[in-house]
Amino acid sequence: MITVEQADRIILTELRDYGTELVPFEEALGRVLAQNIVADRDLPPFNRATMDGIAIGFEAFSNGLRTFEIEGTQAAGDTPLDIQNGTECIEIMTGAALSSTVDTVIRYEDVEIAGGKAVVTVNSISKGQNIHLKGKDKKQDDVVASAGQKVTPAIVGLAASVGALELLVKKLPKVLIISSGDELVDVSDTPADYQIRRSNSYTVKAALSRIGLQADILHVPDNPVIIKQQLLYSLQSYDVLLLSGGVSMGKFDYIPKALAELEVTQLFHKVQQRPGKPFWFGTHADGALVFAFPGNPVATFMCMRRYFLPWLNAVLGLPNVKSFYAILSQDISFLQPLTYFLQVKLSFSEDGRMLAIPLEGNGSGDFANLADTDAFMELPAEKNNFKAGEVFRVWQF
Amino acid sequence: MITVEQADRIILTELRDYGTELVPFEEALGRVLAQNIVADRDLPPFNRATMDGIAIGFEAFSNGLRTFEIEGTQAAGDTPLDIQNGTECIEIMTGAALSSTVDTVIRYEDVEIAGGKAVVTVNSISKGQNIHLKGKDKKQDDVVASAGQKVTPAIVGLAASVGALELLVKKLPKVLIISSGDELVDVSDTPADYQIRRSNSYTVKAALSRIGLQADILHVPDNPVIIKQQLLYSLQSYDVLLLSGGVSMGKFDYIPKALAELEVTQLFHKVQQRPGKPFWFGTHADGALVFAFPGNPVATFMCMRRYFLPWLNAVLGLPNVKSFYAILSQDISFLQPLTYFLQVKLSFSEDGRMLAIPLEGNGSGDFANLADTDAFMELPAEKNNFKAGEVFRVWQF
Questions:
Q1: Which keywords, in A-to-Z order, does the entry hold (chains A, B) (predicted)?
Q2: Which of A8, A79, A162, A394 could be a cystine partner for A326, CB 3.0 to 4.6 Å?
Q3: How many whole angstroms separate alpha carbon A367 and alpha carbon A299?
Q4: A128-175, pLDDT tens digit by residue?
Q5: What whole-number distance in Å separates Cα of residue A386 and Cα of residue A388?
């Protein structure tokens, strides 16, 4: 049986390159850029008025002039208006592009306008005020977002502003979620006394959809012939299989045998952890990966969060799995030599610390608890007693 | 001019009830429950084997019996098999429902099986071991997720497990994002020297889509007749209008006038903050809300995050806007009497504290910076100098 760290290392060695694809910028949210987004011109592209008021040449003002002839009015989007000499000004609106004949904007609050003239009512202004200078944020050809970045709402907006209609992003692996076990019936069925409804696949599918990955779902019965056929098809059609259930030592757990026959090499089986000890991981000769999680709902969910998502991040080249640490709020004991994934509720205190409040309920296997918690806290196998105030890694979900 | 806190209070007074709707449980992720989800039977619904092995009556073992006749083999999903007396056992698989004639499971590792008999090779077992007892997690009719909770992947799975095919959730308001200004051209256009491309609407739309709200987009030209027509239609067809641009003091800002003519009451205009000072907020006689954000991309984005999203949370009855606090990593000065929304990158230190690292770039208006930051830190107007180590509220985006 291997440790959590060893399992981590083995999984993170099995990275694949799934290539890239072009998507409309509006649909790129959450994807990982495979290209730089570059400014097609300076940002801002012109000297831009940031207030409504009048635009003047500063020199005339510094020579004592306070009354300016209004040469014209220029809205945002209008062709820039010139002044002919320093005694003139332009009435200008926020967002308008300034002509090279003006260099300073005085806001309406500081001028009085009457009879085609603007009188400045303040004595102190500074040259260049209320102007967002051409190229101040970015120069033409500057990178505004880099390959490897995750596309955020701000990056969608940046892509729009530089006219990047399509973005090259990393392709996501094709993922199939497989449940197994004849005790599982459809959600719409009424189970017999000894049956339960399928739920794991929906939990995993929902968790993946939240990060933009649309996975398919398949249920296989406890029948060795059908299992082998279905797994063969799945290994040929998908990049990753996420199985839940069917990997224990039971007589009717046909999956490990079928995987072996289909040239899936087992890289490990069983990890020193609770929940999720029977976790099985292997790779197919043609490249597909098989994460076979134990059927217990909390175990499936935890293994998906703790192992599959970090693998996916690594595949997409995201710099590092974001590591979160939180402070345990109360003493906890766990006496077995296993890494314990404790269900916790996170809370941000007003002093900037992240607290993890355990909600043990009926122990690690209580799926109902997951509704009221938002992270697993990873308590290392080397210790048995964990004290309030100690800091450990947490995996938010 | 009002303070950030006053703006907050005014907005959070204008809550509306948008009713409820039924959605398939698979599509409920991120929605807010308007019903409790209740266990349709005990969870687990039967005494469930948690290991593969043999099931026995503990009394026979405690009387010294170590060899048990195998009466039959029962897989998960099979009808429970009974033993006829204490000398018998059932070979049992993980997930199987135990008959009432057995009360203890001994895993395969602790038995030797040969010739139709199982010999227990350990001397110490405990009654009830390796069984997840019926009703241990939840009893029939217990609430497994409550009205007012946001649907997480775990709650999707819980809904599946109790057969809740449809969930009653709170309706989301219908939101229209309106941009204005003749300086703005289509993303697919090549702007003239004095024009820029529309981007704000895409940023806001992307941010809302991330929380499951699909907003529509509209652009209005700087034409008072068209603006009034479009706003009239929008106020009748949508619950919330999010405008960007067109609310400054300029001659061509027709929007405030049109809103007034259409019976939208201004509740405030201008907030003591940077960016976003010209923020305008009002309500229509028939109930629609108008958030009119300044056109600067950072201002629009900040106001959407700081004011609209908390309003939406309050409307949906989410307990409290989750408040995050972080520790400023370096000294910052901001000399104006305004609340300053500083762009920061958040980082979780290994001691469980959340650090906020400022990325000022070219100041509060630099949109390109948003690609490299992940929160606004709210630095209060009452102070001008903010020291490394001090803690302030942050708004993650």
A1: Magnesium, Metal-binding, Molybdenum, Molybdenum cofactor biosynthesis, Transferase
A2: A394
A3: 9
A4: 999 999 999 899 999 999 999 999 999 999 999 999 999 999 999 999
A5: 7
Measure in Å the smallest separation between the Cα of A121 and chain B Cα atoms: 18
Could you confirm whether domain A21-43+137-170 is CATH 3.90.105.10?
A: yes
Chain B hits for A205, Cβ within 8 Å: 26
The pLDDT tens digits of the residues spanning A60-114 come to 999 999 999 999 999 989 999 999 999 999 999 988 999 999 999 999 999 999 9
Does the distance separating the beta carbons of A75 and B325 come in below 8 Å?
no
pLDDT confidence of residue B158? 96
By C-alpha distance, the chain B residue nearest A294 is B94
CA distance A234 to A243: 11
The matching CATH number, chosen from 1.20.58.760, 2.40.340.10, 2.40.30.10, 1.10.10.10, for B324-396 is 2.40.340.10
Pairing state between β A240-244 and A216-220: unpaired
What chain B residue is nearest to A327 in terms of C-alpha separation? B352
pLDDT in tens, A207-258: 999 999 999 999 999 899 999 999 999 999 999 999 998 777 676 778 888 9
Could A160 and B367 be called an inter-chain contact, meaning their C-beta atoms sit closer than 8 Å?
A: no
- Terminal Cα-to-Cα distance of chain A (whole angstroms): 26
- With beta carbons under 8 A apart, name residues in chain A contacting B213: none
Q: 């600067």: which residue's tokens?
A: B296
DSSP secondary structure code for residue A370 in this structure: G
Our CA-based measurement puts residue B275 at a distance from the nearest CA of chain A, in whole angstroms, of: 12
Main-chain dihedrals φ then ψ at residue B70, nearest 5 degrees: -80, 110
Its CATH class, for the domain covering A4-18+172-315, is alpha beta
CA–CA separation, A314 and A8 (whole Å):
12
B152/A183 touch (CB, cutoff 8 Å), yes or no:
no
**Which among A377, A397, A341, A274 is positioned nearest to B352, based on CA atoms?**
A377
Q: Rounded distance, CA B233 to CA B121, Å?
A: 80
- Partner-chain contact B325 A160, CB within 8 Å: no
Instruction: Please state the rounded mean pLDDT for residues B44-67.
Output: 95
- In B15-50, which positions are buried (b, 16+ CB within 10 angstroms) versus exposed (e)? eeeeebeebebbbbbbbbbbbebebbbbbbbbbbbb
Buried b vs exposed e over A331-356: b needs ≥16 C-beta within 10 Å?
ebebeeebbbbbbbebbbbeebbbbb
- For chain B, the structural domain boundaries read 4-18+172-315, 20-43+136-170, 48-132, 324-396
The reported pLDDT for the residue numbered A381 is 97
A29, A137, A203 ranked by CB distance to B367: nearest: A137
**Distance between CA atoms of residues A358 and A322, nearest Å:** 22
- Which residues, including other chains, have CB under 8 Å from residue B22's CB and lie 6 or more apart? B166, B167, B168, B169
Instruction: Give the ipTM.
Output: 0.93
Q: Which residues of A touch B276 (CB under 8 A)?
A: none
Burial class (CB in 10 A: 0-12, 13-18, 19+), B97: buried
Q: Give the HSE-up count for residue A137: Cα atoms under 13 Å, Cβ half-sphere.
A: 30
Q: Please name which of B336, B174, B318 lies closest in space to residue B241, comparing C-alpha atoms.
A: B174
Nearest neighbour of B353 by CB, restricted to A296, A352, A361: A352
- Choose which CATH entry (3.30.460.10, 3.40.980.10, 3.90.78.10, 2.170.190.11) describes domain A48-132: 2.170.190.11
| CB-nearest partner of A251 from B93, B157, B200 | B93
Contact criterion met (CB < 8 Å) for A158 and B43 = no
Tell me which of 3.40.50.300, 3.40.50.920, 3.40.190.10, 3.90.105.10 is the CATH number of domain B20-43+136-170: 3.90.105.10
